[in-house]
Hints:
Layout: H1 3-12, H2 20-34, H3 45-54, H4 60-68, H5 76-87, H6 95-105, H7 112-115, H8 121-131, H9 133-138, H10 145-154, H11 156-159, H12 171-175, H13 185-188
Bound molecules: iron/sulfur cluster (SF4).
Amino acid sequence: MTPDAAYRWLMLAATPEVDPFEVHAMASILALAADDLSAGTGLDRRAFDDLSVHLFPGAAPILGAMADRHVPDPDVEEQAVRDLLLMYAAGGCLDRHYAVLIARRCRWPHHLWQDLGLASRAELSRLMRSHFPRLVERNAADMKWKKFLYRLVCGVASVCPAPTCSDCDDFPTCFGDEDGESRLARIRNGIAANSAAFPEERP
Ligand code: SF4
């Protein structure tokens, strides 16, 4: 199944009782991760069962199939990102799953929002506000999310060539635009819903 087909399938299998943005975000992440199952999502069987119950009750068989594959353990860096996210989690039932997924997808080379299958960086920021709001507060300078997470994990001294960002030649790398296309064609082509279709607050 292609990532776009998986996204469509998950959206059709979703419960109408959950915030549509949550459903869209999780469906996007799972759909893209499913395309590269050799790397795994990081989620274990219990997590997939939990997602079936809370978000995608009609998708239990396909989520179960994803969970049945071997799940590579996180390496030290990935575990550190996961722990960091969990330390700042808002306390909702989906926070842990997002922490695991985000930490695993940080290993891919594109912008984090792209490697999560989201439509834009704005969607990732919205996801972070919902599930890791205190991290958003700490990222008040709006650093790129992957850079920000690794900077917290690794410490300024080990990753930064300058003591302050304003003096650093790498400033554009850490704070520049995060333009680009979504890695899910349905979103890229505007077929799937985009951020504008998901109001911040439910009516
Ligand atoms: S701009 Fe330079 S100092 Fe600031 S986080 Fe990036 S690498 Fe570190």
